[in-house]
Structures are given as structure tokens and as C-alpha cells.
Amino acid sequence: MSAADRYATQGDLVLVLNCGSSSIKFALFDTGRSPLPRAPVWNGKVQGIGRDPTTYGETGVAPAPVSLDPAQPYHAALALIRERVVTRLAGRRLAAVAHRVVHGGSRYFAAVRVDADVLADLRRYVPLAPLHQPFALEAIEALLESRPDLPQVACFDTAFHHTLPQVEQMLALPYAAWERGLRRYGFHGLSYEYLATALAERHGAIADGRVVAAHLGSGASLCALQARRSVATTMGFSALDGLMMGTRCGALDPGAVLYLMQIEKLDVDQVAHVLYHQSGLLGVSGVSADPPALFPLEARTDALGERVRAALALYVRRIVREIGALVAVLGGVDLIAFSAGIGEHSAEIRRRVCRDLAWLGVELDEDANARDAATISTAASRVRVAVEPTNEEWIAARQALDVLAAAAEPE
After folding, report:
1. Is the pTM of this model over 0.85?
2. How far apart (Å, rounded) are the C-alpha atoms in residues 143 and 15?
3. What does the alpha-carbon distance between residue 260 and residue 326 come to, in Å, rounded to a whole number?
4. Which residues are tagged catalytic?
5. Contact 162, 103 (CB under 8 A)
6. Quick one: CA dihedral 329, 332, 335, 337, positive or negative?
7. Which residue numbers in the chain have pLDDT < 70?
8. How far apart are CA 123 and CA 107, in angstroms?
9. What are phi and psi of 236, to 5 degrees?
10. Which of 323, 352, 349 is nearest to 335 (CA)?
């Protein structure tokens, strides 16, 4: 039994917050059962913060518009969630709040209880993850001020990748850059940590072999796992690296950035806006960052149809190309697993990727793929292909309980 499961006998509740620039996802886990259940007792989301409409939805309640203080919409959204959490507690104690914090840098390789000093330290990584880091820290700060007695635990997306060998961490910059901390960190670690557990449970020993996990959502990355440890990944120094994403460019020739600045005269903030918000599927298609919204437009014979086809072709090509690179690092592949929003739900993206991986011996079971089955490859396929829903919130809740359990251990 893990430390988290031993601590779970106390019967409290753990709240998990996943804060983005315009949304906050939350989930409440019941620690009264051991092992900790993977399904939350209650969850929900505030979406479109700072925009109109902003919606709120929770378990049993469909998303509906809500009004937030326009001067401080993010604080207002947090206050709304706190109000709803208090209602759901029904007299039970909230043991901790676990936060998904994207970047832990080269210092934080495990979840940690946050105090003012840790919070100040984590602010140094805001430039490396501007879409997520500042908002998680804002939530932590607000709770430190209003509930200093409530333990808050930061759970890092970079931590799972601390097993990367140095050759995978290094950038080909002057060595002094490495000494200053410029390196490839890797992201989506909470998701990959869950997949390392779930794939072994579902697929047995094959999951301990050569695995490529594909976290395909609005943000996207791949991770090569061996013995269920990260040995290579596509997203490196920042959340811009690697795969083409919904609005992010993915890996890009740095000369293109220099061109935007030197020739087209964009300043740093303008370039950042282009790379984070105007690129990827949205930038190339000009229509949407979401593949399901693009598929119906592919048949058009006009310029829009041409752009949509180009966007989807590039999106798939980048996934296939990077899978090939990770297979080379692994020296082969036994299992490919799709996860996150697009990976779990877009049978068409999976079909196109698997089609272009036929050279590996991938053979897709079309019926299983259409059903989002756990295994979507045929029995004859030389590589097993899986669909595994991720569960970052459960991992964060377990990590928070581990931190509390460690603090409760006698010295």
C-alpha cells in the first residue's frame, strides 16, 4: 500500500485545481476509501474566464453562463469554485488542495507543499509556461492569503521527466547555457505518470517495454517510455516545442523567429502571441484549432478547403515524424498509446497516424478504432496500439496525499 493510500484512511477530501489562462478545472476526491478511487466524487469547470460568455458546469449540472467581476474575473472564478466546494464538503474536512503546476524547473522533481518561499521560486518559471504557470500560482497565492492553514501541494508536469538522460536534456547551445538551466524539461508529466500505471494494468508486461505515449489535446506531446520511465519526449524547454498543436507552432526553426523580428519587425510580445495563439491548426487552417471542426471542410474545393487539408496533413505529419524519432531512440516500439482529448476521441486522427505508421507493422482494427476501444490494433499487428483515457487529477490527488503522509511520519 502506498503512502497516499495509508493516509487515505483518514476520510478527508482533496481538491485538485488545474488552472489555465481562461479556464479552471476542478475535482474533489474522497480519501475515505483505500486505494484512492480514480473517479472524483465531484468535478467541474469554469470556462471562458475573461470572455463572454463565461460558463460554469459541475457534476450533474450542465454548463451555463455565469457573471464574474470583470475587474478580477480569475479571482471571481476561484471564489465561485470555493463556494461550491464548501457546499459539497457537507461538514467534511478539506485535507489539501493539489495544483497542477506546469513547470518545476531543475529543482522540483516531486510534489511539494507550497509556502511563500516556494511560490516565489516558482514564479521564475512563468516565462517558460505563460499559458498555465501564472494562473496556477495566482490560485495558490489567493488561497495562501485566505486559508493559510490549508495545505497546498504543487504537482509538476515536468517532474516525471527527471529520468531523461542528459543527452535528451541538453540543448546544442554554449555549455554555459546548460549551467544556467537552459535545458529540455518535458511536460504533460502528470498525464504520462498516469499512463505508465494504467497501461501496465491493462496491457501487462508489454507496457514495461518500448512505449510511445501520445498526449494529444489542445497542447500535445509524445513521450518515449522504457520500464515505464521517461527516456525521451518531444516538448522540451518550453510548451512551444515538439508537435504542432491547436494554436501553438511546435518545433520551429529559430531562424523563422529571427526573420519575424528582424525583417517583419515584430517585437518580442508580438512574436510570442503569434507562436502561442495564432499558429498550429488555427493558424494554418484559418478556421479552428479543433480537428473535428476541420474535417467537414476538407471536401471544399476553394482556398479554405486547401488550407484545411494542409493544416490536417501537417498536424498528422508532425505526429508521425516525431513518433519515428522516438522509435529510433527506443530501438523499436512495442506499444503506441493515444491519450488526452484528441487522442482519446478522434478516431480519424488515430486512423491517419496509424496509416502512416504501417511501415512499423502497425495494423489498425477499424471497428475497434471507431469505438475508441482500449486496443485498436489487430491481433496480427506487430505493434499494439491502445487508447487510454488520462487522469491527471487522480495523480495530483495521490501526490498531495503522499506529501501529507510524509509530513505526518515521525522523524
Report:
1. yes
2. 12
3. 30
4. 157
5. no
6. positive
7. 1-11, 409-411
8. 13
9. -110, -100
10. 323
